[in-house]
Amino acid sequence: MKTTSRKEQILQAAFELSRCNYSWSLSGLAAHIGVSKTALYRHFKNKDELLAAMDAIIVERLVSSIEEAEPEPKAVRISVTRLLRSENGILFRLLQNFGMRPGYEHLLFEQLAAQSPRVRALRDSITASPNSKGLSVALVKNCVSILLAGVQLPASSCGRQTDSLAAAGADSGDTFRTNLAGYQDELISILGSGLFPLPVPSSARLDELEALCTVRTTELGPSNRLFDAIASTVHEFGMENTTIGRIADKMGRAKSSLYFYFPNKDEMLLELVKTEIDRITSLCSERICRGNTLPEQLFILLSVQSGYLLLKSDILAVFNWIRYELVRDPSRDPSRDPSRTAVHPFEKPKLNGHWRFAEWFGTVPDLEARSKAMIKWCSILATTGVLHSLANGADSAETKRTIRRMFLSMLCGDRYTGELA
């Protein structure tokens, strides 16, 4: 029987803590293992060195999953998803990196390409393609969506989740259940098939809808001094180094005064995002009836949210974090915890009677649950598209083209060639 070395034990415990708390400390890690903090320093000089070792393991495990899968997109997606579901510590460390390290997706892709012949061949083919921008967007969409699909929920809500992955490679069917587990398996299927046979809007029609979705500065709503201070602090210091003390300094107030309203930083950030999501929802509701088909309505959602974020770039870092927060604990219900002061912004998206989700799902008892799951996915991809575009130095016009490519990739799945309709 293979014995586990102390260094391996430390790494394993660090991944375990990553599942519960993105800001764990070395002291907490030592207590979790049952050793002194000094014992950790015999193997790692500091937390940064430990995190680097964890990231190296992640790359190694991802490369193995990619290389061991059958050589086609469906099999690779399923293989990586199985890895993330079986080793959620790896998943949550990945989510932390995506949510708190700008440009991490590019760094990870290059690290994978350096060790995986398949990823290297994919990178080279994208680079050589005249539609490289579109193919890059499609790749980012797949990566973020696989992270969403990789969460292993409690057995009470998703006992059949892992087994059902084998069927997820088939055409989309009735696997889209009322719980998130069903959504995750359906998502793997949609990544391949897209939303076929729903019609792809013409380029001219997308131009019309894009103009309709233009968000004006007068629609941003009133300024909130606290939320402005939060966004400014995150923008300046990054999510992990944002503290209530620094937020209070921005406002010129005592830190204790903020604790009167929020028990911790995460609750404050959730309330900020909830406020912004409510505004975006209102803007979408005003325009959604202008979509004649479900694809047109999804394009409206993507365009309105991305346009809003472009006008409020200071909150982008917070929205990037919420992608991580949503997946870190997707099944929690704020109503079950009376101590929570903020409702999760993606927990209960509002639907109105104009949505045309029945075009895709049909007339089913759980239509609303299925519809909300797709809205969550689109909302996350809208944020992803803006972040991806701005990370590449794009202006507002190019970011709109990125969102259009994201939409076409969603609609066409693996059939998407990267062209801009």
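The record above closes out task 2.4. Task 2.5 opens with a second protein, given below.
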Amino acid sequence: MVTGATNSRNVVDRFTSVGGAVTGGLSGRIVIWRASQRLALQRPWFEFEDLSLPWLRPVIGYGPDLFKYTYLLERRADPRTGRLVSERYAHNYFIHKGVELGALGLITSLGLFLVPMGAGAYLLVRHRRSYSIVHRLVLAGLLAALAGRFLEQTTGVASVSDLAITWVLFGAFAAIPAIMEEPPAVQDPGRLPAHTQRRLPAGSRPTMAIGQMWRPAVAVALIAGIGTLTWIKTIDYPLAAVKAREGLDQTRSGQLPKALESLAHAESRAPGVFVYPALRAAVYSVYADGAQGNREAECSVTGDYRTCLARKTVLHNREAAQQRPLDWRPQLALAQSTLALASLVGTTQLSSDATGLFRRVAQMDPQAWWRWEMLAAAYNQVGQPQKSLESLTASFSILGDSDEAANSFLIQGIARRDLQQPAEALAAFDRSISRFQRLKDTSKKRPPAYRSGLNNSLADAYSNRGAILNDVGRYHEAISGLDQAISLNPNLAIAYNNRANSYANLEQINHALDDYDEAIRLDPRLALAYYNRALAYTYLGDDEKARLDVGRVAELGLDAGALLESIEEAKNDR
């Protein structure tokens, strides 16, 4: 009989992010401030990092520019919409500094405002009679401007232009004492005492001692250093961005070799910008898709073209991830490319590396249920369904039994099937289908891309359910569900493969061959379709075509030996 099949790969490859603008007004800021308070008081840290320093972080904080990463540890879903929102800032300058720089940073930030305001108020009161009306008006205006800036920072975080104005105000306060002092009387140099008047001997020139030359030398070095840094930041980085834009345009137009050259040039001009190696990895992914018949030159001369491309993709994604170790985006790209390489190479170490990276991404944002779903799907793909179920406990603890748990039930069903638990798998797929259907029914006002994604997810659920029904011998019911999957997503190759299995098990071999052919047309690398079609050809007595499919199965990495044994059994049955 023809074996049933399911495909967890299409589950792990398709996930959508949830996010958007936080609820406006004061209520939205209060939610952010509460999460920031938990960060400041509890000081959570990432599970995959050992350097938590719980005793020191209240004093020194997490570090500059780390709010946007650590905020993910304590963010909560909006109780009205259920949406998780990422925040780059605390929407309060002082709270923001308290999280990033701890108690020292908070005290310093408050001091920057309170000390000048206190000193200004003291001068205004202490010298209210000695200062002229103009001096008092200027001082009062500066105090009002600084007080306004202080209040403004309690509901936002200053931009660069705002900070520039604030520092101008600080500079004005620093200059006030000197401006408001009476200028000292200037003496006539001709009336200086004789002992203070020195004259150089005739014909001599002033000289500089060697010990005094270090000051101008230091000044010259500082000027040169600042000039070099300014050149790099203001010239090289924009030029690198221009080359990166050229690389993107060349990628879209199919000029992949030129795109790699442009991106390499951008990376050499602006090292440390994680986007550039990430873009180079994306170009190698385009090569792997075989777009427009392009073939990468270096990998073309190797024994395994696709594996070579996958290694290059992992290499550049790893470089990007190392430059942003706490940013989930490059870490996720590295996890996905490592999983793709593991599926090609099939080593236990690579599979372990891939699932470890997916777990790292989930731990970066523990309240984002879809990250735990991605981890569970990755475990399914590498053949560890029990760990997949363990990972899903995190997503179910967040979602409960809500409709948003539809994808979690889908992944759970795949894991149950791999554990040879068909009844539990069918129950999970039924829960998934009912929830996806309710989401679809209420999505009429959502964007087309969202509705299309729901259709594809619902098709996946029907397809996997059909595979289970094939396994338990309910072929007619399987065909009905697989018809639903194909109507929802006509490009889902695995659904055609699964429906072909149903027809084959009902001894409708010609119908089965039509579906196998369509599955292969949609996905020429779907090894299961070649595997099953070889068996179908054998039942029809077309051993030559079966032999060709066996060769293709071996090329795609499936066990051709097991197929040959099944073919011999089929020959005995026909």
